[in-house]
Amino acid sequence: MAQIAPPPDGNDWLGLSSDPLPAAVALEWAALRSCGAVVLFSGTARDFSPGRPNVTVLEYEAYEEHVVPRLAAIAGEIRSRWPGVGRIALLHRTGQVAVGEPAVVVVVSSPHRAEAFAAAKFGIDSLKSTVPIWKRERWEGGESWGLEAQHLVEVTEVPSA
What we know:
The chain is of the alpha+beta class. It is built from 3 helices and 8 strands. It has one domain: Alpha-Beta Complex (Aldehyde Oxidoreductase, domain 3). The strands form 2 sheets. It has a 4-stranded mixed sheet, with helices on both faces. The termini are far apart.
């Protein structure tokens, strides 16, 4: 899997990579002269999970051929619900992600902050519930794939905030 690179043109940056995610680059890329708001959500690997002390590493696997099409569906739905959105970045890691590193980055720019915040929240909520990516945690005393079964839904089924 190659490093994620911004598209040469266009307003949607969608990607899956085993390399560290370029959160700062995505934030800078999303800023447009017509947009007064840029919201960045970075889902960062943490060192705990309920009942799982001292998490040391997270590992992500994806059904790769379905990821970008589903990310594109999320971007399309964001644009449908918030037509003024400027740029959208939806980026996710695969493989091992060390504690403190971003596992997922969502960036949305918009003329106004309310739309940027709502669209970014919808972006991460939709990504978590519609994109086939699974997480394994390793912690002191064990490891497991996820806390519960994940039932994927269609992006149109995800409510707006």
